[in-house]
Description:
This protein is an alpha+beta fold. 20% of the residues lie in helices and 28% in strands. The model is unreliable at 183-187 and 327-336 (pLDDT under 50).
Amino acid sequence: MSLSHHHIRTTVDTYLARHPHEREQLSALLDALDRPGEDIASRSTFTGHVTCGAIVVDQLGRILHVLHLASGKVLVPGGHTEPTDDSLAAAALRELHEETGIPARAVTPWPGYETVPLDIDAHPGKGEPAHQHFDLRFPFRLRTTEVPVVLQEEEVGGIEWRPVDRVTSPTLHEKLLKLPLQVEPETANASALIYNDRGEYLLHLRDYFPGQIWEPGMWSLLGGGREPQDATLEHTVRRELAEEAGLDLVGLSPFGTEYASHDDGTTVPIAIYAGRWNGDPRELHLTEGVMLAWFAPDDLHRLRIADTTSDLVRRHAAGHPPMRSGPEPEEQRLASPHDTVPNIIGVHLYLERPDGTVLLGLRHPDSAFAPSTWHVLAGHCEQENAIDCLIREAMEEAGLHIERQDVELVHVVHHIGQPRNPPRMGLFFRARTWSGEPVLREPDKCTQWKFWDPAALPDDLVPYTRLAIEKIQNDELYSETGWPA
């Protein structure tokens, strides 16, 4: 099966976003992409089709060239795509191996160009009238000084490492001059931007291990670093999805590049691959991090998430409107009867140390609810079950890691804060064990964490929280407050 039209179009559009002045000179390529039903990846499409080239740079900044016997020209390795190619970049790597014997593991993608070519050149193909080649050239760095070279004798007459000033392609020469060819690029990484038909995005809450992992305790995309066995970055992201969540997606397309930041201020480029999935993340076997959950783009402002990741999701969402809106058919059939009033579900963490003291947080003076007042760690249920909500809020607000099997329900308080407010159902869960000490992860919401003696609680404590703590101490499971007599 040929490379998808969508994959080629996305790659070309991303390239032109970087080089808008080349739109006119690539008009023939854009016209070919606009013709309906035309397989631009097939070499039998003689009105024009794509080819892929590998720009391999060694430690001295020289560029690998091969003598193509058919044309008599010295060019970078490259050729036609094949139905077995996973992506355009993979086609370039395959051609490199076939023509020179250099394996994919001997090179690494250039940071920032993992899914986007450095150069696109349109030129006449050989042997056919009106035959156009649209050559997409991807840059790679040679990882070692010793690589096996086995030439494809029927097509290649020899190889040559040329300095940049001897690169004959004007457009490629110009772009190579702007690359720091003798600077060691950082290790390439790849992540998956997974979305569903409702326009939601699958995010991964990372463990809170500052100094040990990237973006600790933040919502991010599934993915990781390239391993020696990964021929391409698509292989990297597929391996990471399988290892981290047991997830295998049918279709993945290159989307762009994100830059992740470490605590020490350094950044790494991450190739982003987008794919559609409509499953339930609760059914996946997560081996790293805290949890997986779906979020709509409009909900991202409430999360602890990198600006680059948030912008990436919103940019993708702008070009991919939901295919399905509203509740699922099953949910429609189970809609609430007429005149019933929805109740808001609040989830609360009752964290008691061995000495009997209970964790409370002092809410920010600008908080919409209970400003400058003590309260247990709490949050509202989103598109998730209550225990997942508790685990998420504990990590997001205080950096506490809690396992599902260590949670038990200890009290329910059904309350109304103000007469006109909707009723609320407050679920209080005890964590029998946990890891980590409370830290201020969201200082705009909570300004202090402190363990209090239940017999000497602060005066400025949320009333229903005081009631719930008292009932928990007496092993009472249910209470009510705020309801008219």
